[in-house]
Amino acid sequence: MKKQNIAIVGLGYVGLPLAIECSRRGHRVIGIDQDQGKVHDLHRQRSYINEVDDKAIEALMNESFTVTDQCEEAKQATVIILCVPTPLASTGTPNLCYVQTALKQLAPHLQQGQLLILESSTFPGTTEEIVVPLIEREGFLIGKTFFVGYSPERIDPGNKQFHLTDVPKVISGMTSECLQRVKDVYETIFKELVPVSSTRVAEAVKMFENTQRFINLSFVNEMARACYELEINVEEVLLTAETKPYGSSAYRPGPGVGGHCIPVDPLYFKWKVNQVGATTRFIDLAKAVNDEQPDYIVKRIRSLIHSVEEAAILLIGLSYKKNTRDTRESKSIGVAERLIQAGFTIAYHDPFVPVYTLCDQAYQSITIAEDTLAVFDLVVLLTDHDDLDYNKVVQHSKCIFDTKQCLSVEGPHIHKL
Ligand SMILES: NC(=O)c1ccc[n+]([C@@H]2O[C@H](COP(=O)([O-])OP(=O)(O)OC[C@H]3O[C@@H](n4cnc5c(N)ncnc54)[C@H](O)[C@@H]3O)[C@@H](O)[C@H]2O)c1
Question: Which PANTHER family does this UniProt record tie to the protein (predicted)?
Answer without folding.
Answer: UDP-N-ACETYL-D-MANNOSAMINE DEHYDROGENASE
